[in-house]
């Protein structure tokens, strides 16, 4: 059984720890959001819908393949699973995808439906490849919609044209970010959340 493998247990544990940290920081109020990690080239482990991300254990996850078929248990994955799958299909170097709903991310996504450009922050070095020399990071904002296949196609097209992106927002909804591992994706999530807080604070102080 997949749930008995060391890889599943290690990734589930890493995602549960990430969920606990994100919940403690208020980035995933109630049971929203979903986190995933790659098991191998064809399978990922993803949080089951409707669970408190601050209290996950090994039973809080589903294994799905990159066509969206559930390989464990009888629970249905969230429709948003396809927003994770498009990332894993796009690059074998993507090992984890995190989706959260913090207040600063949600507020900024409503204020800037045309997208954000984060510039002149020292912390941006955490989001760009080493040596890229990038001074700014674009954060696209996609309109919120229940049509997840259409949204997934939009995201996939955008990432194909801009492979340097480290994350995106869905308007009035939240952040998606990713990395080579759960730890790397979590570092990006922390960096984005810090920068979003700086953006919100700058706007407040500037009034
Ligand atoms: Zn969400």
Question: Would you identify the CATH architecture?
Answer: 3-Layer(aba) Sandwich
Domain module tally: 1
| Share in helix | 25-40%
Amino- and carboxy-terminal Cα gap: 58 Å
SSE pattern, N- to C-terminal: HEEEHEHEEEHEEH
* Major sheet: arrangement of strands: 3-2-1-4-9-8-7
Radius of gyration: 16 Å
Structural class: alpha+beta
Indicate the low-confidence ranges by residue numbers: none
Secondary structure layout plus pairing:
Layout: H1 6-24, E1 34-38, E2 43-47, E3 61-65, H2 81-90, E4 96-100, H3 103-111, E5 116-119, E6 136-139, E7 141-142, H4 148-161, E8 167-170, E9 174-179, H5 182-205
Helix pairs in contact: 2-4, 3-5
Bound molecules: zinc ion.
Give an account of the 3D structure.
37% of the residues lie in helices and 19% in strands. It is of the alpha+beta class and 207 residues long. The protein has a single domain (2-205), classed as L-fuculose-1-phosphate Aldolase (3-Layer(aba) Sandwich), CATH 3.40.225.10. The strands form 2 sheets. It has a 7-stranded mixed beta sheet, with helices on both faces. It has a two-stranded antiparallel ribbon with strand order 5-6. The model has no long low-confidence stretch (mean pLDDT 93). The structure holds zinc ion.
